[in-house]
Amino acid sequence: MPDTPRTPRPTARERLTLAAFELFEERGFEATTVDDVAERAGVGRTTFFRSFRSKEDVIFPEHDGLLGQIRDRLAAASPPADLATARTAVVEAARLVLRHYLTEGDLARARYRLTTTVPALRAREIAGQQAYQRLFGAYLHAWLGSGPETALRAELLAAAVVTAHNHVLRAWLRDQTTDPEADFETAMGEVVALVGLASGARAAGDGPAAIVVVRTGASDAEIAAALAPLAEQS
Question: Which InterPro entries does UniProt cross-reference here (predicted)?
């Protein structure tokens, strides 16, 4: 008979993470010490500090790695990427973050409970969100041309992407949605339509914007006449 595949034994880091979250739920974050976590995991204090720098790092262990994945995805569509390529890169980079939390499952929900009740952890989570927003903002600013006139637009775009992602993530963490992936697509569609990443938007280097005002009640022929000069310029 073929051998039955063995379930890999959890690593010390995995045992420490599980032990820490169990103890935080049982005793509270502040009342739990590093020694408590190490003892529950069946390892020594030294092993804990080989895996994590502090109790807080047990809760936010993947932050740097996730930022690296986002940076790599955006870099794959570096300027002068066309609009469709840039839009896809931003949406897919944001989706990486959502799927990371979805894969964590109950661990992500336990982290959410902690960050909503422990001010220091909430502050660190906000700092992490700001790091994501800066990363998106830097990419969008470069894509828009890196000029001072595009800095505000890049920040607004980045804030919209992060806000839409967080809205969907919170709904999932609170058990308010059964299909976060679909909700994410809808949310990103709202961002694209709202803040200028839709197909009619322009990157840096395009011609100047034009605003056409057509009075209410104008006929189709009048509207076509108003738009004709723009069509000739495009």
Answer: Homeodomain-like_sf, HTH-type_TetR-like_transc_reg, HTH_TetR, MftR_C
